[in-house]
Amino acid sequence: MKSLTHHDPDQFGHFRTRELPALLIILGIATLLRCHLLGAVSLWYDEACSLRISQFPTSEMLDAISRDAHPPLYYYALKGWTICFGNATQTVRLLSVLFGVSTTAASWWLVRELSTPKFNHPFQRRDGVAPLLAALLVAINPLHIELSQEARPYTMGTFFAVLAATFLVRANRKDSSHKIPVRPSTWIAFGVCTAALSMTHYYGLWSVGAMFLFAAGVATQRGAWRGLMASIAVIGISWAPWWQTFLFQHTRAVDQLWFPPLTTNSLLETVFQALAGGKHSGLIEILIPVLFFSWFAIGIFFLCSRETSDPLIGLCIISPLLTVILYCVLIRNILGVRYLIFAQTFVLIAIAILIGRINKRQFQIAVLVSVVAWNGYWCLELTKSRLDAAKFPGGMSAANYINEQVVDAAPCIASSPFVFTLLAPHVEAKKNFIVEYRREHRDDLLSGPSIQQKDFFRTDSILQTEKPSKIWAVDVVGLFGKSVRVKLPSDYQISSEARFPERYGYRIDYVIREYRLIEEQLPARSFP
């Protein structure tokens, strides 16, 4: 068979047709892995916050987002999704599954654009191994699978990150005269994707910065400055109405959010977990520094490559991590495993490209098998962890119990905003479900955005009028190492109690107690 070149477009078209069935199989695998046990575990706190805020009326929703620590795009996407498909646990998470599978497809497209015959890359092969490998590695990566199973903005961000890089590669493509023509639509599409990324998760700004750094280099070519200015205009327009809110959020986050100071061990461990699906095994301690330096080695290799768009991949690998490290050292620690998902996606893409560039087929297969086995091992660990958590779905069980038992007008009081936020989306008697809260919720970044003024009260206020004969209380044991309990007057006694252990996100037990007013304390009734 003839090798594919830019002089043989028919063969290349046939080559892409042959590639489609394999891509569809990979997308099917990605979907199955992400849907497995999707609704088997309860929403954890961050997911519940996303769902709660997205269910507010539009005006209140924007106010709540402004008091949160995240940009607005995902919340509005989730709001539209739940309006169309409902707010069941599995349904809410399907939006992230959709973006996770879309990231898999976008990774294939990015590497396909890099390996188009016009680039004449050395990893251009007639079996299309590099693009399919990129899709496969994203499809089976345990961190991508885990974050695709959460109602959070991470996979939405990875989708826009890869899509933005793809449009930038297309904008950087040279024509037959070896000049880079102006492609307004491509540059505008790049600007839209970077704006969407930055409005999905603030950590995406590090990746946006890396891409615009590469784009500035492209702009030095004749005629490319207009395209760059067009993309900057798009992202500037999107940020103009949000800038003041961002500054307000940043100030609150600096004042109220705290992470332990960054140490060498925590840095190495975080990078290791980003490449090991968020997990850590004490059996392979030696691999922790190895993977950390491998991350930078891969990035530097692509950064120094002479291939046209390789430096873009290198920048998207190194720049976000390096910038975050500098921020952590100079200002405060903000490093987290899941926050590295945007840069980690490009590490997976780079590994796929490197495997595709191996000329010896046997060595190529050996490396591929090793990488797939690595991901397979951590996928198995993820599955075991999720199966264990599925045995104790305390949040879902507690909400179902409330829906079945609290059928009258008796108030049901959550002991903290944490408990209220976790259960409120799935409690049917919303008017009776309230939270005991004694602070100003608008000043509280951690628990304030997901609750409204009408949701909380002081216990004494509900007892100022005629005391209800029955009160339900939702307490929690093990929350941050302590118990949180609703405090009621001594004339209320426990008449029943149910306990629901939760092992996903936090190891806590929900305790639902039914209190009844002691008979002799009941006010006398007059009869006609």
From TrEMBL:
| Annotated Glycosyltransferase RgtA/B/C/D-like domain residues | 70-227
The protein's matches in Pfam families, at most eight in alphabetical order, are given as: PMT_2
Q: Which UniProt keywords apply?
A: Cell membrane, Glycosyltransferase, Membrane, Transferase, Transmembrane, Transmembrane helix
Q: Does the keyword Ligase apply?
A: no
Q: Which residues cross the membrane?
A: 20-45, 184-204, 224-243, 286-305, 311-330, 337-356
GO function term, MF aspect, one: pentosyltransferase activity
Q: What is this protein called?
A: Glycosyltransferase RgtA/B/C/D-like domain-containing protein
